[in-house]
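Narrative of activities, Objective 1.

The group set out to show that a structural description can be obtained from nothing but a protein's sequence at a throughput compatible with the screening campaign. Below is one input-output pair from the validation batch, recorded exactly as produced.
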Amino acid sequence: MKLDFHTHGKLAKRLPFSTQYTDWLFGEAKEAGLDALCLTEHFNTLQFDEIYGYILKKSRREGDTLVLENGLRIFPGMETDIAEGGHVLTLGRAEDILELNRRLALYKTPGRFLPFEKLMDLFREYDVLVGAGHPFRAGGHIPELPEEQLSRFDFLDLNGKDVAEDRERTERLTYGLGEKLGKPVIGGSDTHQAVQYGCICTDFEEEAATLPELYRQMKAGAYRIRISDQAHFQVKTAGILKRALKEIHALGGDYVGVLLGRNDEKEFRSIV
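Output recorded for this entry:
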């Protein structure tokens, strides 16, 4: 089972939710060879609940996952900022993720983010897996947390964006922390844009539809992280396209229409 542990369903958290864009992302994920992904959408993205409401309507339940018509398996999740600086990934049942998001409603702006310890206390009220997102990215301070707090993580994120920028440093530091804490290291692309799918993924020996099944394989090391030879190009290209699409939106344009070619079709029809 080829799984991307860190993905997003929107181009950017401050843009409106687009069902067409999300459908395109999930279609491209399958085309990129993924069997499953963890949808770790930002906890303070616009319309967080609507994203999951849409996916729940168009998928079937299998264990803790949501399976789309194209066969792509989704592990529901969330990416949460902490007061110390850094991001925490959470995976769980859709209902638990939505409830946690509602309980974090008062803590979604800088200056109000929960400290890591309090956030973990909240998460541990639920049957969820919790990971350190891109722990060594500039601006984050997760590695500086006390070891007794770091030990509360279930896994660490070997992040595709960071691997593309400096693979040697990212692998050395992330695997080093994982070994120190005795925690599995997994791979996630951190993509908001489909070009980035496949820059890194975690290939499990067996398919999993529940969090206990997934975590059993994680703890046993029954997986292999695969990094594309084109990771740097994929991440760089995805970043350029993301900036261009955001600028189209800022100028009042339909960035989804441009991406999917709808605008060209309209222009052609107007000409003929």
